[in-house]
Structures are given as structure tokens and as C-alpha cells.
## 1
Amino acid sequence: MLTQNLGYPRIGSQRQLKKACEQYWAGRISLSDLNQAARLIKDENWQAQLEAGIDLIPCNDFSFYDQVLDMSLLLGVIPQRYAPVLSEVKTNKEIDLYFAMARGYQKDGLDIIAMEMTKWLDTNYHYIVPEFTARQEFHIFYENIFAEHHSAKRLLGNKAKPVLLGPVSYLLLGKEKEAGFERVDLIRKLVPVYVEVINRLRQQGAEWIQLDEPCLALDLSKKEKEAFEFAYRSIANRVSGINIILATYFDALLDNTSLAVNLPVRALHIDLVRAPAQLDEVLAEIPDHLQLSLGVVDGRNVWKNDYEKSLALINKAVGKLGTGRIIIAPSCSLLHSPIDLDLENNLDPEIKSWMAFAKQKLNEVNELRQIAEGNTSLLSANKEAIKSRRSSAQVHQQAVKDRIAAITETDATRRSAFPVRQQLQHERFNFPLFPTTTIGSFPQTDDIRQLRSKLKKGELTAAEYDRKIEEAITDAIRWQEETGLDVLVHGEFERNDMVEYFGEQLQGFLFTKNGWVQSYGSRCVKPPVIYGDVSRPENMTVRWSQFAASKTQKPMKGMLTGPVTILQWSFVRDDQPREVTTNQIALAIRDEVTALEQAGIGIIQIDEPAIREGLPLRKAKHAYYLDWAVRAFRISASSVQDSTQIHTHMCYSEFNDIIGSIAAMDADVITIETSRSQMELLHAFSNFEYPNEIGPGVYDIHSPRVPGTGEMVSLLIKAAELLPVRNLWVNPDCGLKTRKWPETKAALENMVAAAKLARQQIQTEA
């Protein structure tokens, strides 16, 4: 019986990759220094997996920014607009091209926008979307995969297993950039390059290769299924001497089961954490030659594996296939898990005993193999931890359960319909056409971060800390007033993270010191752990919103994170339905919304960037999820008067298939990401005739480039052609926390100027 891992966190145990990339982008270290930092992380990762006894250890799972972008560079899928980077940049051409595609490029006389970024299936990881044209060609452009396999083989020998995103999923996760073709039709051009890559790895001594095809867990058309058959039969006919593991995850194969088990590969990996019931379906159809990788250890959460449950699945598979055809593995790449629980020395010991991070999950995989092969002594400690969690008084709060049981439809409904509310809000605020605002956060400078650090270390009193935060808020308000923004924000200088900040003030949440996971590029987040019933003991944001509002005559937005986003961006308890936990959070946010309104805050933003992210991969499950997710938002937002304006924010999502549910949220104003797609996402809102107000983002905050006024005016005019002008707001794509002040100020000044010019142009035409 073999063990394997599908992928390992690449940020480093102390976020070394984040620091090295940001230093490289700032010009403070060389490419050689950046590569050295990467080498140390990879060696540490490989050594940890080797020591854990894993038989097949991934390589090429490391990335400086994103594994899908890595594939685009490997395959030469480089949009034409980046050609000047290769011709004009004198040194480090390939890596600077790579980062330009991810982040945009604004130097050396060039000004090039970044590629689109969106969520990796239903996770909070973001990938760079491949761009395809009808005449797209593929060739090996970037050869880093071969160097990495060579390095891995020196340490791991034949255990080194290269990992690639599979050819069909690579195409399906991309986007056509011109009309008249379907990207899946490019499969015949793409497969020969995959064959070349795989054969070169075989020649280097690779015995196994993992091809990730997460799209096998999606609803597939007949043409897409045919693309899978063509791709893998073509690879099988032209590649020999290497074992291919086809990896699926995040949901069941369902109607794709026959397709998957009959593709000509050596092994198939399935996710038995998300979809344990699919094991019976796979075992019923699996051919005699196929090995089966059982994803029984949760790669996306932090809870200790219940060995008895996992062993029931393993034993069922062994009973049908025998031990020789079984591989034990995590459910998916451990990219989505924190690295090492041993680094957490301040956790409640009882709760810590229920948890496992990436390093511990490797040990779970190995122990499950040992138990399955007869070493039952490892079972007792695991049983005790599982029993402790089920019965702990820290988990269950009866008052919270009673309040959930008492929720009615009235709790999820605003007093009046939107047209009535809109009229009252316009009378109250008297905004111009194209009112301007930001999404909420302003740059978290080193000075601000050091304040929090000094407070935690006791080097600063709470009073001194509060005074410094008040100064930062006051300065931000003065600057916003001078710039001419219509609705101000306090800047969120007191907040470490949009989810962590709230979780720290809610009961039922636990926080780690080093539980970082990658969100995109160098952006890492430290998700809270929801271990028990959730409640709000006291006000969370009122103090700072009241202070900010007292410093200006302009409207001040209260800023909150929504219940679905807090759920999605946390490690969630798995002992009750997710919708129950979401409703607990919704009631806590509802209490805060009520308190803000009572404190005189007339505009309240409840951010829900993750509501699309939580959508199940299969359409048959959409309605149930959207029903409880939308209802949770409405519970959080519906306690206010009609004249109080509720905003929400969503970013980096495709909205076409859920536009009806977005409308059902009934937020007075929604702000969305649209700049990278050049307002393309607005077509969904236009075609639906979205009735409420909307702020399409006019500049990309995930890129350091500063868009010009003309560029933003053009986007606003595009928006006005699609939606009623009186319903349009002007704002960035997302919060500005990760940006620097000089670029932030320049971009927002351009944004306000663009709004003024757009008003003039619209009024002149009228």
C-alpha cells in the first residue's frame, strides 16, 4: 500500500516566500537571492515529506505566484500585450514577464495591465486566468519544471513526483479573449506539448507524474468529456515508461465516474472528504488495472482525522481491490492548510489536541497506512481526541442554539422594497451622479503594523495605541475630504484582517500565531478556527466608526464582514451543517449592524466577497446553498430603517450564474471587481436588469500600477451604457490595505477626477 501527497504549502514556515517576493519587487534583493529563498523552502518541504514516510512526494507544486500562471508560462500562453516586456527588459526577462502577467507592469516606459484573477474553484485561493485566442499556439517556453524535478530527484530519488495541472482543466479554467471559438477546441494543439513535457520528465528519471484534473468534478458537456478522452488516449499512445496519477478533488465524480475510471492512466485520485459516498460508485466501475488513491485526510481544514471513519473507507476499498492497488493520501493539495501545528505554543491545549496542520496531516496519512496494515495501537489516542471534541463544553452553547431555532422570515426581510428605500436614501444623502467611495481599508503601513506589534508585546499601552489609531483615522479623513470623495471610510487601521478582526471579538473562534495560508501571490491570510457555537459578547466596531463620523460632516461608512465570508475564510467546525454556523455568525453581525445604526451611522457595508466562492461545484447543489447563504446575509442586514443604506462588496467572481441570488440579497448598493475584465462582468447585471445600485470597480488594487483618469472615464462610460446612471457608484475593485500610500493617493485622485469628468460628459449628452 503506497502513500502520496498531492501538494505542500509553498509560502515557507515563516512566510519566507512572501518576504522574498516583495523584496524582489521592491528592488531590494536580486533574482539570485529570490531563487535561493525558493530553494530553501523547497528543500524544507521535501525533507518534511520524506521524514513523514510519504512514498510519492510532489515537486513542481512550488510557485512564486500561482501554479496556473506557471502552466501558462511553461506552455508559452503569453498575451501579446506582454511582448514589450521581453523586448525592453534587459535582465531577468522570464521572471519579470511572469510577475508582469500577475501584477501588471508600469515602468521602463511601459504600462501594461495584469491578467484576470479569479477563485480556484470553491476555495479562497486566487489563480491567474489563462487567456486564449482562436489561433493560440503552444510550445515549451519556460523550462523551470525540469530543473525543479532534477533538484527534487537529488534529495528524494524515485519518490519525486512532478505535478502539473492537466490539459483539459487548464483550458477550461481559462477564458476566450475573442469571439468565434471555444477554448476546449484547443486541446488538439495543446496535448502534443504535454506529451513533450512528460517525455522529458521520463527521460530525467521520473517514474510517476500527477496530472490534476479538478474539472472532472464539474458538470461537463459532451465536447468537454470528449476532450478528456482525446487528451489522455493521445498521451497514453505517445508516452510510455511513466505512471500517471489523475487527480480529482473538491467534489464527487458522479456522472463523470465512467469517464474517469476508464481513462488510460495508472492511478485515479478521488476526494473522500468532500464526497465519501462516491467510493461505492468508483469501486463498482473501476477496471482491473487501475490503482485508486483515497483522499481521506482533509487537505482544506485543520481538524484531526477521525481514523475510524477513514479506515472504514480504506478497508472497503482494500476489500475490493487488495492492498497493492491502494494509495492513501490527503483529499487535495495541502496548499490550503497551515504548515505546522507544532509552531503553535499558545493554543488552548484541549482544542489543540483536536487539530492537525499540513505537517501533521502527512503523519496521519502514514499512520492510516500502518493501521490498515495491522498496527492498531495507533488508534487509541486518536479515538480519545475525537471523543473529547464531541463532548466538550467549549463547543456547545445552548443560548446560541435557542436563538437560531427562533429565527423567522421577518428577521430576513427589510421593512420596504428597494424603490422606497432608494428614494428615502437619496433624500437623506443627496449624492451627485457617480458618487465616489472606497471599499473600506487604506494602506497598512509598517508604522501601523508596528503599533499592533508593540501593543501585543506590552511596549505600548492601550490608551497610547488608541491615540495613534485616532491620529491615523483623522489624517485619512482629512485626505479623503481634500480629495473630494463623497462617502468616507475610517480606513480600518485598527484591523489586522477583515475576518480575523471580527473573529477575535466573537465567542467560538480560536486564533493561531503561524497558521498562514496563501490567498494569492504574496498575500497570505491567517484564517480563524471556528471550534464552537458563535456569539457576540459586545460591540466590535462602533467605537471607531463613531470616532470617525465625529471628524467629518460627510457620510461615514461603517465597515463589517458578512457571515458567509467569515465562514468561508475560516477553518470551520465540521460537526454541524455549515448553514447553522453561518446563521450563528449572521445574528452576531445583525447585532453589530443595529448598534452602528443606533450610533448614527447611516451607511453600513457588509462585505460578502466569498459568497460566490462558496457555490458548490455541481449545479444541482446550487439552489440549496444560495438559499441559506442569501438568507444569512439578509438576516445580518435587515434590522435597519429604510433610510439606512446597506452596501455589500464582492470581488473576483463570475456572477452570471448567480445574478438572481445577488439581487435577492437586496443590498442597496453592491460594489464589484470589474477593471481587469474591462467591465465585462457588468453584462450579467445589465442582462438581468439588476434593480439596485452598483459600484463597478474602476481600478485594479491587486496591481501596483496607477490607472489614468482617461482610462477610468472610459470604464465609467461603458458602465453607463449598460446600467442606469443614477444607480452607478465609483470605487476601486477592492480594499486598499495591501497597497502603498503614494499609488493609492494618485489612483484615488484620478478616480475622483474621472467621476467628475463622467458626470460632465453624461450631463452634456443629456
## 2
Amino acid sequence: MAQGKINVQTENIFPIIKQFLYSDQEIFLRELISNAVDATQKLKTLASLGETKADVSNLRVEVKLDKDAKTLTFSDNGIGMTEEEVDKYINQIAFSGAEEFVQKYKDKASVIGHFGLGFYSAFMVASKVEIITLSHKEGSKAVRWECDGSPNFSLEETDKAARGTDIVLHIAEDSVEYLEKHKIQQLLDKYCKFMPIEIKFGTNERTEKVGEGDDAKEEKIIEDNIINNPTPAWTKVPADLKPEDYKNFYRELYPMTFDEPLFHIHLNVDYPFNLTGILFFPKLKGNMEMQKNKIQLYSNQVFVTESVEGIVPDFLTMLHGVIDSPDIPLNVSRSYLQSDANVKKISKYISRKVADKLEELYKNDRADFEEKWDDIKIFIEYGMLSDDKFLEKAKNFALLKNTEGVAKTMEEYLEQIKPLQTDKDNKVVVLYTSNKDDQYSYISAAKDKGYDVVVMDSPLSAHFVGKLEQEFKDTTFTRVDADTIDKLIKKDEEIPSKLSEDDEKKLKPVIEGALPKEKYTVVFESMSEKDQPFTITQSEFMRRMKDMNAVGGGGMMGMGNLPEMYNMVVNSNHPLISKILNEKEENKQKDMTKQATDLALLSQNLLKGEALNKFIKRSIELIN
């Protein structure tokens, strides 16, 4: 029996530790199974090159749990190791067997691990580790290696009938959670769900009827519990897949999601980097944060992370699906990934592919695209706000939908409204609503003028309209309740006022007395007699700043934190205003004013609590 000390090569080990040091204890399972899968893949490569006579028809990895013995074992029937290879690849930590194999057979082999520290992650949870291995090479003898986590090891010949390697972890006292079946099953589902070689973990039992009629009996069937799908949809050629295959794969990825995706993008590129994957467009809800962290990042079918923010453009994190690239290092450090040159190229490529796919869908079936618009618009708005290259493409298919449900691109829409909605300063004014029901009276007033109103009701609308104003010069967006209808789109013509300056001075304190203090500013405007006597408006600029602040990035000079402020616009030409002015009895004048201003407040859902209760009582008295 040989004994010795593990040779840690300082000049090699520190760069590897610096780049690949694991921060998550459970990663040991991914690393050990990756090594086992590598061992089978190496054997398959050698067989394809005629360099081994070993049978590769039934390659498999098996995970075995023995709670009584406190062991967790990872077995494979792959390439195995000789005593010399154990000494070389295990005892000399920094020299990676996978790395050497890749160099020798590059362009022929698909190998997961490139770093010699993977095996040693076992000591994060084990007090002692054994390796029992038999090489595929003819005449090889099985060997057993053992180490308790110190630099000391033993290496001796042993008995092993089948080719391959068993890694036996003697679980440490502080890691007994890894002796629970449900815990191992959970980690296998997380990290190994799509590894390219069949992985077995225990067995499943089911009953099956055998025979017919009265002779039928139920028999117990014991089956291997295969935890993974070695050939997931993203590894296949798109031409070989049907729409139902993509839907099934989506359900496989997200078994607890019941909505079907709207459409998908199948990624497949081999230059200047290798990348495969499938991205799905889910039906996006209003809360953007709920949609994130649903893209799973893989490297050669080995799970890396689903926290891809900073790795792909932020707006793409709202998509679901899988990205797989051997050019993405198998490491959980996001800061490392974010600075990796290949990752940056991949990020730009995916963004471009998504934009191309959306434009293709728009051009090929605009009616279907319009039907799905409400479910994807928040994603497209997010992309246009955060990625200038995406913005340039998206201007061709991003839609504005009016209150009648008619959708047009920005250029189409501007062309439509230009004749009627151009103001005296030659700016085209796009009127929009954030809520068709709450702002119904304002929308109605706009339509009476022949104006069109678009619906902008996403959480990003305040930011998005600002971006569109930057992109489309001589265009401005104004919410339909930001001012009276004649001031929303200012024209040259003016309506004379029936009130003199003295009349306005007399009326102003009466109206101010009927309103809550500090929140409302009384403004007199000369409008049509048919317009409302009192109208509540809120400055487009101030309201937009507050809306932008609510979703981040709009607290310009602290304006996002200012209290709500409104204008109470008085129509100086409405008969009711003249009636209030000419009322000689002071109490009656106050009651008329209070009732009329309360109606204006009520129309905007601004009349609440005690004030609302008093309004109801007063209204009943007036009816009686």
C-alpha cells in the first residue's frame, strides 16, 4: 500500500482558487456528477476514435445514499483510472485531467470540467472520501484511494469487477442534511436535470394490472428513478421539433407554471462562440420583479445559475428558458461572469436575436402580434429603455394602441394624428390615458374634439413616453387629464371670457374655501359653455416625475417626493359659474360651490372619508 502527501502545486493552485473558488456548499454534488459524466463522455470519445474496445452502449451515472453508513456514493461506468492516473490527477490537485484530455482531443470531445478542484469540493461535506476505480485499459487493476481532508492519503490495490469509478463520501457531522433523500433529490433536480448521461437515484414503485377480467391482478413494478432528461429540446435541431415539443419542454422547465408561453426563440450558433438554448416569452404581468430569474444558465447541460442579471441584458431577464454555452465557465461567481469577454458577446447576440424574432413575428403575422401586444409590451418597453440597439430595431414593431383597441407603430400613429393634433408651436401632441375608466370624462372630451387617445398603462409608461419624445422630434406626450382639453393641444384661436378680472377675484376665495387646503390651486380658464364647470387637472411634468420616481429613476431634483398637487380649473363661461357669482345669499353660494367642486373631486376619486359622507347627505337633501 502506498502512502504519501498530496502534491499541491502553489504556482498552479492559486490562480485556480482565485477564479473557481466555490461559495455554495451544495455545489459539491454538481461537481462530482459532472466528473462522473465526463468519465463516460471520455470513454465514448475514445470508442468513436477506435482507441478502446470498451462497450459504451449503456453508459450511466448512479447516486447511492446509505443513511445508516452515513455515505453518499457517486458511481460511473466510464473511463476509470489506473493507479498512476489517480496519483497524477487526484494527488496533484492543480493538474486537471479534464484539461489535459481536452487539449489532446479538442474538437472531438465534449467535456464538462476543466479544473482540478472539482473533486475536492467533496471535502466541503465529507470527513473522509474514498475513490474505488478500475480503468477501461486492458490488464488494469482496481485501486482504492482514501483521504480524510488532510494532505495525507493512502492508495492501494483493491477488488472491483466493473469498469469505472465510485466516489464514496463519508458525510461529516455538520453536513448530515445530505443524508436525507429529499435533499439529494432536490439538488439533483436543480443541477443535473438535463445532464447528457442517464443519472439514476434509487428506484420508484408503481402498480400495474396484469391479465384480463376476473383474472386481472395488480403487480408491483420496480423501476429505476432516472432523474434527468439527457436530450432536452435545446440540444436538438429546430427542424426536428414541433410546436408541441416546445410547449412540453416549457412545462418540463416550469412544472408549476400553468400559462403557456406566447412564443419561443431557438438559439443555435457555433461562431464566434458556441451557444444553444430556447427562450420563451411568457405572458407578462404588471409586476416586473415577479417575472425575473427564470432563465436557467447551463454549460454543456450542467446547471450554472438562474440569476442571470448582469450576464444578459436586464430586460431579457423577464424571459424564461435556457441558455447553454461551453464558453460560459462553470462558476457561480457572477462578477467573474460579467467581466468575461465571451459572456459579453453572448449577451449582445441574444439581444439581437430577440429583436430579430419580434420583427419577424410582426412582419409575418401582424394580426397575431397585435393580439399578443398587451402581454409583451412591458418587455419591449423595458428593452427600448435600456438597450439602444434594441430600441433602433424595436421602433419598427413597437405599437401604440388607442382606446378603441386599434394598434399602430409610432410612425404610423404620428402620421394619422398629425393633421388635427399639431399645436400652434408645430408639435404633434400624443394624448394618452393611464386608466380608461378613471379618466373617462377627459377621454370623452378629447374625442368630442376629434382627438385620438392612446392607452399607456404599464408601470414603465412614464419613462417610456419620455424616451419616445427623445426619439421622435417635435412630438410631445400629454396625459389626457393633464389640462383642460383646449390647453392640451393649444391652438391659435381663443374663446373670450364672460368673467372680468374683478369677477374672478370675488369668486376665487369662495371656491378656495370649498376645497381642501394646500392641495389645490384655483385657475380660471375661458372654455366652451358645454365644457364642465369645474375640472381637476394635474401638471404633466410633475405627475410624470412622480410616476417615474415610483418605478425608479425619476426623482429629478427631489420632485418625485413632492406631495400631490392639483389644479381646480374653473370654466369662466359655464352658466353655473355665473349663477354662483350672482348668488346674493352667502350660505347658498357656499353650498352651490361646495356641491359643484365635490362633484369634480368625486369624478377623480379624490373625495373620501368624512368629505364623501357629507357630500352624500347633502345630495340626498337636495333631491328631497
